[in-house]
Amino acid sequence: MGKAGSILGIIGIFLGAGGLGFGFMAWNTQNSMQANLTAQDIWSQYDGDAFIVNPPYTYLHIPNMSIVFDLATTASIHILFMCNAVIFPDPADYAGITFYFSVDGVRLIEPKVDVGSYEGSSTRDYFSVALQHSIPSFSSGTHNITVMVYSADTTHFVSRCSLTIQSLAD
User: Fold this and answer.
1) Block means of pLDDT (10 residues each) for the chain, length 170 residues?
2) Is the pTM of this model over 0.85?
3) Residue spans per domain, the chain
């Protein structure tokens, strides 16, 4: 029994040392990737007012959630949108809002965020929404990024919205 325990101990030491080595490699790779990113500019917009998603079945721009910015050189950009959403559930069907980015007048199909409930029984549901996207090697020039919403209902609304865009040197 003593010999079997020693062999298991040696195997455990090798597995532990291998795990430490693998962890160091992953950490070191992550740090070297982050070291190559240099923030250039940050643009941001905030609006605390409520916006009712109406009319239904229409892609709508959220008011004041648009940023026009200039890039002097090609750069990667990171886009972050956050808000609160209030959904009034439908006891017989799905009720919700879908959020999209629009870049230079073109609505992006992905990424998107869907918030809502299916056959909800409460009087209203509250959601925290976060939508982000990165675009590598975004061309220089003037660009416009906005946030769009879509809903089949007329009562849902969003509030406390913020949009932030960060450019990173390539």
Assistant:
1) 71 70 67 64 96 94 96 94 94 92 96 90 91 95 97 93 93
2) no
3) 1-36, 39-169
